[in-house]
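Reposting from the mailing list since nobody answered there.

I have sequence plus structure tokens for a pair of proteins and want to know whether others read the tokens the same way I do. The first protein:
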Amino acid sequence: MELQLTSYAAAPNAALQAGFDFPVSLTEKYRPRSLDQFVGLDKVKKIAANLIAAPRSSAWLFLGPSGTGKTSMGLAIAEAMPAELHLIPSQECNLANIDRVRMMCQYVPRNLDDGRPCRWHLVLADEIDQLTPAAQISLLSKLDATNFFPQTIFIGTCNATDRLEPRFLSRFHVVEFSSYGIAGQVAELLASVWQQNVAADVPAPNFARMVKDSANNVRAALMALEVEIMAA
């Protein structure tokens, strides 16, 4: 399988201001922006493509280990639909912020900055398993079919569900993200990044070992590679 690597830096105006260069980390520079740029996740990508093609008011839980692309997948879905994005970062997924976003979703979605019209809202809540029991109960009622966020797709991410109440969890379509079987593709990604950033005569590290040490965590592997590039 040939891996297509696309490099993404910050927007031109943000990357270069007043003659100064503001580099970004490798994890941000090579973060996938579209479905075809994700490593592995074939089943997840099919589900996402169908949701983009035929969006409907619904709640989804992206479940899996860190570094498997859960948040990036939510961002890619919002971009592709397109939808007005409401991001609730990790540690800010609380009752107050959920209520605030719920109010924002009552309004017609705003068009994107590039002028593309939006018909949908997309709420992306990171580490939703950190919600307190009271917040879970409140959100549970908002995810009920009779009181759902209007014209909204709600996506929560988490590493595990042991802190989520069963009746809360039952409101979500659970999509599992797995790093199983992607070691070869991640190693190929690291090799491509190395070639783009280091002179050809510099000996390359053991990419396969780097992936193994990172437990197939793409983000962790890229961070380890960044250290090696800086030392090259």
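The second protein, same order (residues first, tokens after):
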Amino acid sequence: MPKDELWQLYRAAYEQYQSVILTGEKMYSRYVNDFIYYHLPCSSIREADIRLHVLHVFALKELLEERRDLVEAFFSKGGFEEKDFLKMDDLFNKGKSLEEPEPVYLAHFNDEQILLITRFANSTSLFKSEVTEKDIRDLFECRLTVSLQATVNRYVAIFFGKLREHGLLPYSWQKIMENHKLVSSSVNNEPLQASQLRCGLSQARVANLRKKPNSNILDDGIGFYDSCDVFIKKLKECL
């Protein structure tokens, strides 16, 4: 295999993005899956080569799925050179965002959306205390004076993660929530850290792919995971 295989994969992903995403030919998820399935097979008979190839392909999978901010910034450009690849790969590996000012808010929602989010939070007991529309607006505008305590930390991670997945929150939402102490832990009422939100979201994604052993019943977080999808699609209709 070529020594610069990773660079070639980035370049191929860029060309495919230009071909099918910028032209509106495919949904983003279809683009990602098609790219990975096409490039995953390896004809080498050397185990070391195969392992390295799989490592590279799944690195691209994680990049395409988890770092849409980098993909959109670099792959939408009119050209993609090796220097772009090196910068993009470095940002990806270090978990850094592009050098842009960090937003001082999570999101700006209109009155109808704030009402819908308030009703959803209360109906699902997202927080231990019932919240008002002012609480929810202050939460997203990062103006809370007292943190809202989560009922289940993982559910908070799922809800905000889904908002991000649908493009309604900035990439750095977890760090913003930590810095402004917006939500506190269900266990000790201490402000949730970005690492705890990431962990909760990762656990939810894994749980969403499996059922409990010897049972047809899905993990207890699955119902909430899917209901967030349905709710946020409705929320976007009010933009």
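Reply #1 (J.P.):
I read it the same way you do. Residues 5-94 form one domain.
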